[in-house]
TrEMBL record:
This is Cyclic nucleotide-binding domain-containing protein. Residues 11-113 form the Cyclic nucleotide-binding domain. It holds the Pfam family cNMP_binding. PROSITE patterns: CNMP_BINDING_3. It comes from Algoriphagus confluentis.
Length: 195
C-alpha cells in the first residue's frame, strides 16, 4: 500500500527508513466508490491526498453547471490548497470518476511531520511550487489558446485523460461545449485523412 507513495516522495526528497516510517504512521487510507464525493462546497479540506489508485475530478458549480477544473490520477497528490492552508470552506467539489484508493495526511499531522522530519518542509515547498506552475499553465492555456489548440495540447501533455475520462468532462475541462469537442475531433480526423 505504501510502495507508490514512497517512490513518489523519493523523486523530491531522500528519506531513510526511520523517516519514512514516521511519515507512514501519520497516514490513513480512504476508499471511494465511483461517483462518490470526497469534498463538497462548504467543507473544510483537512487533508492532503495521495492517489494510490483511481481518478478524481475537481470541479465548480457555476449557475448550476459543473465546470471541471482538474483531474488527478494514480501517483498524484491533491488538496484544496486554499481550504487546507487557511481552514476556510471549500468552494468546489471533488468526486471519484473511478473506484479510488487514497492515502490521507491530515493538516495537524503535517505540522508535526515538519517538526519531526524537516526534509518534509522541502517537499511542501516543491508541492506548492508545482501547484502554482500548474495553475499558471492552465490559466495561460484557457486565456491565450483556441479551443482546438487546447485540445491538441491536452492530447500531447496528458493522453491518459482521453483513455479514462468521459468526453463531457473533457469538454468541460477545455471550457467548451460537448458539441464543440465533437466538432473539433471530427475536423481533426478529416484533416488527418487528407494528409
Amino acid at each position: 500500500m505504501y510502495a507508490q507513495i514512497q517512490r513518489s516522495l523519493a523523486r523530491f526528497i531522500d528519506l531513510n527508513e526511520d523517516e519514512f516510517e514516521i511519515f507512514q504512521n501519520f497516514l490513513t487510507s480512504k476508499h471511494l466508490a465511483k461517483k462518490e464525493i470526497l469534498l463538497r462546497i462548504g467543507q473544510d479540506c483537512r487533508n492532503i491526498y495521495f492517489i494510490n489508485k483511481g481518478c478524481i475530478r475537481y470541479y465548480y458549480l457555476v449557475e448550476g453547471e459543473e465546470k471541471t477544473a482538474q483531474f488527478f490520477f494514480e501517483n498524484g497528490w491533491f488538496t484544496d490548497y486554499e481550504s487546507f492552508l487557511t481552514g476556510s470552506f471549500a468552494e468546489n467539489f471533488v468526486d471519484a470518476l473511478e473506484a479510488t484508493e487514497l492515502l490521507c495526511l491530515e493538516r495537524d499531522n503535517l505540522a508535526q511531520l515538519y517538526r519531526l522530519v524537516p526534509k518534509f518542509e522541502k517537499f511542501g515547498r516543491i508541492m506548492a511550487e508545482n501547484a502554482y506552475l500548474g495553475i499558471r499553465h492552465r490559466t495561460k492555456n484557457l486565456t491565450t489558446l483556441s479551443a482546438e489548440q487546447r485540445y491538441l495540447n491536452l492530447m500531447k501533455e496528458r493522453p491518459k485523460i482521453f483513455e479514462r475520462i468521459p468526453q463531457h468532462y473533457i469538454a468541460s475541462y477545455l471550457n467548451i461545449r460537448p458539441q464543440s469537442l465533437s466538432r473539433i475531433r471530427r475536423q481533426l480526423s478529416q484533416s488527418a485523412k487528407h494528409e
